[in-house]
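In the laboratory, one determines a bound structure by crystallizing the protein with its ligand and collecting diffraction data. In a computational setting the workflow is compressed into a single prediction: the sequence and the ligand go in, and a structural description comes out. We illustrate the idea with zinc ion.
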Amino acid sequence: MSFERIYIFDTTLRDGEQSPGISLNPFEKLEIAEQLARLGVDVIEAGFPVSSPGDFEGVQKIARGVSGVIVCALARAIENDVRTAWEAIREAEKPRIHTFISTSDVHLEHQLRKSRAEVLEAAKKMVALAASLCQDVEFSAMDATRSDPDFLAQVLAVAVQEGARTINIPDTVGYAIPSEFGNFILGQYDRAPALKDVAVSVHCHNDLGLAVANSLAAIEAGATQIECAINGLGERAGNASLEEIVMILETRHADLGRVTGVNTTEITRTSRLVSQLTGYDVQPNKAIVGRNAFAHESGIHQDGVLKERTTYEIMSAATVGRGQSDIVLGKHSGRHALANAMEELGYKLSADELNQAFLHFKQIADRKKQVTAVDLEHLVSEEVRVQSDIFELESYEVTSGSGKIPSTRVTIVKDGETLPGSSESGGSMESIFKAIDNAVGTKGKLKDYQVRSVTEGKDSLGEVRVVVDVGGKPFAGMALSVDVVEASAKAYVRALNNAYRTGAVS
Ligand code: KIV
Ligand code: ZN
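The predicted complex, in structure-token form:
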């Protein structure tokens, strides 16, 4: 039996990055893109280059540095967008321009203020321009599911005629329901027969919790590309979750007759990396990647699974890369052992990166008996984050105790200059955050503060996430340490680094 190939278009770094509060720097984007390539997605939508210089840089870094996968850049159907997208991806091994325009009357009237004829013309010209620059062009009709099906088909046919190889039919506002969406796709094949000559893609949002179900309905109606994001990230309620789509096709492949090119054992690691770098936690009961997705709590279930795993499990945890690695390092492990462990985890570190990682590893190993694969993954993402930081926490000292007002001294390094700061007030955390503000010259307001342990045991790494309001805008920061006071200080400094990147701190 031959299975039809479904192409996985990952939009974590574009639509996912549009989730409120997420702001990845170019190094973080590259790190995620490298992991997406390891995961085996077919297309990485790296960003929307015209939207900011930082986005342009991130897309360009990915285009230059990630091979074996299509690197795609988004552009509105506007000449400057299309040309900027092309500039960002032109050095990619396999570049793709993705251009889009809305086709629903509600968007035409209230947002674009364009007639249908103008939209048709813009789509025609911009797909033609994109195709003159890049062999691989994708066209999306934004808000397709609320568009007049005849007008939509007319626009899609023009896009195919002008050279689009992939036609994407998005459910932009997550309004569709599966049976209706499947018929909608079939209706477009009837109205625009040229669709049979190209790849039909769908991009479903999750406003009604139906993004994955709608994507599946589209596959059954003939779509061969699915746009989705790790952990279901994306605008509002997010996009279809990549891991769910892939595992549905994998687990039920005999019935659905479709396969993807994804290496499912990389799913868990990718999910963790995205969660760490974006600061978006995964809900514990989330399918496939939630902490409890393979946990059996009730006695009856535990009894069944112990006797025969398939009594209550439709897929094994190992298929998605859980609990596979038994890497354990300790304080006597050397550079070579660290390099080997990193390689086993899929990270190829340069000599400089290895030196840096080794220093950090030693600090952890001195305070923690066993350094596990989970610790090492966190360590790598920590290294990535600090590469582009302007402020660095050099040292801190907090004095506190019963009945004492905590007093803190910190030194922050900025461009080689040491900035001292101090504070005596409130609780220990308040005091350390104020001392950092004092050194940097900011007045941050702490909006959120969370601490959790990364692994088990009293010596576990502590992960601290903060959201700091600087000048009326929220900035997130995350850091790890065996010492939660240090992790808190570093997370606060990280948030100030993010604020600095946007100009909110000078
Ligand atoms: O939701 C949407 O319609 C989009 C397009 C740009 C594809 O994100
Ligand atoms: Zn979208």
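Residues 116-133 form the longest helix (18 residues). Keep in mind that any predicted model is a hypothesis to be tested, not a measurement.
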